[in-house]
Design goal:
The complex is a heterodimer of chains A (763) and B (148). Chain A is an all-alpha fold. Chain A is built from 31 helices and two strands. Among the domains of chain A are: 1-174 and 213-251, no CATH class; 285-513, no CATH class. Chain A has helices spanning 2-18, 23-30, 32-46, 72-95, 105-122, 126-144, 151-182, 196-212, 221-224, 230-239, 243-252, 260-283, 287-308, 311-342, 353-356, 358-372, 378-391, 395-424, 438-456, 458-470, 489-510, 522-543, 548-563, 581-599, 603-623, 627-651, 660-684, 694-705, 710-718, 720-746, 758-762; strands spanning 52-59, 64-70. Classes of the chains: A mainly alpha (763), B mainly alpha (148). Chains A and B meet through helix 26, helix 29, helix 30 and helix 31 of A and helix 2, helix 3 and helix 4 of B.
């Protein structure tokens, strides 16, 4: 598994390099890694060995790790992700002209998505799952916003990112509660949970899944995401990424089997989306949007079936997922080909394509029929299993599930009929059709034919989806996909669905279509995103207002408040005034210098007084026998005083006059802060363990550090990791200062400002 | 452009520079067994740069290079032990004989300290850079007669 991930990483780099030459070279280079991965997944599926695992622990104590597990469900998804991925890369090499812009950006982002998706389906730890979940959102954002010059496209990309990314955070919250309840962060070790907290977790996880899988009311991003190039729509927004939520519902259903909210909320999401999406699909005129709304509806069906949770339902859900990935990707690829070759996707302008594009028509009819659930195709067998699953439930659930699946399926058949008839059937003839590009046709044919092959080799498909479903529910093992069930209830229902759907579809197709409706809710989503973006800078202005006195006051008061709870622990009885009288003298000088620094009006005087404080303190260090500290303190003070003097050029000679009340408040805050720091120091000197670590450190220092200066050995060896962190902070500060200085110098407004320099101040 | 008009200041700083650099170098190498170390050495060298900047002998520049080199050295010294299976920041002590100086004992702490020093100097130079270019004044321009 590491090898495959490394191969993907290598592929991203290679595609980036090839992208400089041409789009086609980059896409075909990028396609190698998914092709190899798909081949690996198929061999793994064929073999009977133990599932592949890969694990790398980062922080053991927190259970933070990258953990992958290639179980049967993951392998099935890998086959889909990488198999369809490889086909999409080939397709895209025909879709884009060889000299298309973004030839570095697009292939690398697409392969990065493919990698993230693999990580997501392999993830066996909550943290790993979350990381890759969000990575797919980010790469999807980059791909949706491929045409980064059109504002509408950018809006759509942003909407997709905020909804799916935000949903990821909700998911994380849900997963954390679940992990806490189940006592493990390893997904494959989750045990059934129950109780209120688990219900909350179930709802949070479902909301997360609903944002990713475009369930109502979070579906608004998916139609917008159709602004992406069609290969992206086919790959991310029908076959793989939107399946992540569905996959999660399948993977977590054993853990939530005892939680009632899981099934009811899941059914609510699924059923509403199934109908809403189908109605949306019937209203659209853009062929691609019809498919997108159809995806919302189909994902609703998947969630509905999986939320039922029984062995049969899980089996049916996984079968539907498999079938949907194949036929929906095929349909998108055909629409992309139509778009490229005729220049339009409006079904009112299209028609009679069966003459000019016979192969595409055949693929679309096969895939569409599979979507509608017509035998002899894979989609038929999967839908049959879903109806059987609904029939297998009891009580209200049985009625609700059955009505929903039948109703949704009738609408599905209807929009499929409308899509096929209006695009390929009789109608206005598109005269100018560009010549066929084989790179586009072949992948679509493969995916379309997969629906037939899946029907013919039903046993093989059962061998793939059956074990995958068993990962979620052990009872799924006994079911199989049936080619021709005979006159059973489910079959009769299936025939009824197709008949009703065809009639409905014909009726709707006759009706003239109105203007393309704007996706409901998109405006609300955009408005709320704008609101958040406007609120953020205002909040920052409040918190980071830039007033130095307020910052200092905040810090002083915070130290004071933090020290308050320990007030009674502070023991004054063993306080020693001084070990040697010279300490008293130095302390007196230091305090006097501090008082002088606080009272003089001149800034320069105050600075020098502060320097005197520092030198007094370093004198105390010397008396205490800490020459290292003294030396460092002395040099620091020197540099700080010189720095202050340089800064005085900006600030002016004297402190500004302040009102008396203000002055009193400042003194009070300063005293409070000083008190807090004193308390902290007194407490740290208490040494609760009783033994000084100095002997141990001395031994270690000479032994391991090879030095006699304890302070320095601590800095460079025993606690070197602290030092490393500190110098990283220093370096970051330095870079920040340089960046600010350069930004200021580049600002033309500053030309008006008096260019006083410190040297002029000093002369 | 910073330039002091006082030849006395200039001369003094010019005289002090090599001495102070020597002290800084001493601190760097002495650090392991006596008071000193990369941080103190970096501050001394930084103080030299500050004085020279104020005296108009040089302009603060190349802060980014110093920080980058320092970071690179520190990171390499920190992570290199991982390559041969030791723990992060593991110390290697080397002892060898050098003509004139006799037996010299040093370790990988020395390059680590050099990196720290470079970062500290870089930070100070960055601060000088930030303070000394054209700036915005909020309560009027600075007072040129401050020290005269």
């Amino acid at each position: 598994m590491w090898f495959l991930l490394a191969l993907h990483a290598l592929g991203i780099v290679a595609a980036g390099l090839a992208g400089r030459a041409s789009m086609r070279a980059a896409l075909l280079t990028a396609g190698i890694a998914p092709a190899v991965t798909a081949a690996w997944a198929i061999t793994e599926l064929a073999g009977d060995g133990a599932p592949a695992t890969a694990r790398w622990t980062w922080v053991d104590a927190l259970g933070l790790e990258l953990s992958f597990l290639g179980d049967d469900l993951a392998l099935m998804m890998t086959t889909l992700v990488s198999g369809i991925g490889a086909l999409v890369f080939v397709y895209a090499s025909g879709y884009f002209s060889p000299t298309a812009a973004g030839s570095v950006r697009f292939p690398t982002a697409l392969l990065a998505f493919s990698t993230s998706m693999l990580g997501l389906v392999w993830a066996d730890s909550i943290w790993t799952l979350f990381i890759f979940w969000e990575l797919t959102s980010v790469t999807s954002f980059l791909l949706v916003g491929h045409k980064n010059t059109a504002p509408a496209v950018l809006d759509a990309a942003r909407r997709a990112l905020v909804i799916t990314g935000g949903g990821g955070l909700v998911l994380l919250a849900g997963l954390m509660i679940l992990g806490e309840q189940a006592g493990t962060t390893t997904l494959s070790e989750l045990t059934p949970v129950s109780g209120t907290a688990s219900s909350v977790a179930a709802v949070l996880v479902l909301v997360g899944a609903a944002t990713k899988s475009a369930q109502f009311p979070f579906h608004v991003w998916l139609p917008g995401a159709m602004a992406a190039p069609t290969p992206v729509s086919a790959y991310l927004h029908s076959a793989t990424m939107v399946k992540a939520g569905v996959l999660l519902v399948a993977a977590l259903s054993p853990a939530f089997v005892e939680v009632d909210a899981w099934r009811s909320v899941g059914l609510a999401f699924g059923i509403v989306s199934m109908f809403w999406g189908a109605i949306g699909a019937l209203r659209q005129r853009d062929a691609k949007l019809i498919l997108a709304w159809g995806t919302v509806s189909q994902l609703g069906l998947l969630i509905t079936v999986l939320a039922l949770g029984s062995g049969k339902a899980i089996f049916a859900g996984i079968s539907l997922l498999f079938a949907h990935a194949l036929f929906k990707a095929a349909l998108f690829l055909v629409v992309g080909e139509i778009d490229i070759r005729t220049g339009t996707r409006d079904i009112d302008e299209l028609g009679s394509l069966y003459r000019s594009m016979p192969i595409a028509t055949a693929v679309a009819v096969l895939a569409g029929a599979s979507m509608a659930g017509v035998p002899p195709l894979l989609g038929f067998m999967a839908k049959e299993a879903a109806i059987e699953a609904a029939l297998g439930m009891d009580g209200t659930t049985r009625v609700v599930a059955l009505v929903a699946i039948v109703g949704g399926s009738v609408l599905t058949v209807a929009y499929t009929v409308r899509f096929l008839l209006a695009t390929f059937g009789p109608g206005p003839t598109v005269t100018e059709v560009a010549p066929r590009r084989w790179a586009m046709t072949v992948p679509a044919v493969i995916l379309g034919a997969a629906g037939v092959a899946g029907y013919v080799f039903a046993g093989t498909v059962t061998g793939i989806v059956g074990p995958a479903a068993t990962e979620s529910n052990a009872k799924s093992a006994v079911y199989e996909l049936i080619r021709w069930p005979g006159l059973k209830t489910a079959f009769v229902i299936s025939l009824g669905i197709v008949a009703a759907g065809v009639v409905l579809g014909l009726v709707i197709t006759r009706r003239p279509t109105g203007a393309a409706p704007r996706p409901l809710g998109a405006r609300t989503a955009d408005a709320s995103i704008d609101g958040v973006l406007a609120f953020a800078p205002r909040l920052t202005e409040r918190v980071q207002h830039g007033s130095l006195p307020v910052y200092l006051a905040t810090m002083g008061l915070a130290v004071w408040i933090a020290s308050m709870p320990f007030l009674d622990e502070l023991l004054l009885d063993h306080v020693v005034l001084w070990d040697r009288p010279v300490q008293g003298g130095l302390a007196l000088i230091t305090v006097a210098a501090a008082a002088a620094g606080a009272s003089v009006r001149s800034r320069l005087g105050s600075t020098l007084a502060l320097g005197a404080v520092g030198i007094g303190v370093s004198g105390l260090f010397v008396v205490h026998g800490a020459p290292d500290l003294a030396l460092t303190q002395l040099v620091v003070e020197t540099v700080i005083v010189v720095g202050f003097v340089l800064g005085l050029g900006v600030l002016g000679k004297n402190f500004p006059e302040a009102a008396d009340a203000w002055q009193t408040i400042r003194v009070a805050i300063a005293l409070a802060g000083g008190f807090g720091v004193t308390m902290a120091l007194a407490m740290s000197a208490r040494n609760p363990t009783g033994s000084a670590p100095v002997e141990r450190i001395t031994a270690e220092a000479v032994d391991e550090g090879g030095g006699k200066n304890l302070v320095n050995v601590i800095l460079t060896d025993l606690r070197a990791i602290d030092t490393l962190g500190e110098v990283v902070v220093l370096a970051t500060v330095a870079i920040g200062i340089l960046a600010l200085a350069r930004a200021r110098d580049a600002d033309p407004d500053d030309d008006a400002v008096d260019p006083t320099t410190p040297a002029e101040v000093l002369t | 452009m910073i330039a002091s008009r006082s030849p006395i200041v200039r001369l003094a700083v010019q005289t002090v520079t090599p001495l102070a650099l020597l002290v800084g170098t001493y601190l760097l190498f002495a650090g392991h067994n006596r008071p000193g170390g990369g941080f103190a050495a970096g501050l001394v060298v930084g103080a030299v740069v500050t004085l020279r900047t104020v005296a108009g002998l040089q302009r603060p520049s190349h802060a980014d290079v110093m920080v980058a080199v320092g970071m690179a050295v520190v990171v390499i010294v920190s992570f290199a032990p991982l390559l041969w299976g030791d723990s992060l920041l593991d110390q290697k002590v080397v002892e060898w004989k050098v003509p004139l100086l006799g037996k010299v004992k040093t370790g990988s702490a020395l390059p680590f300290d050099i990196g720290v020093m470079a970062i500290v100097v870089g930070l100070i130079v960055a601060l000088l850079d930030g303070l000394s270019t054209r700036r915005r004044t909020d309560d009027g321009p600075g007072e040129p007669e401050l020290l005269t």
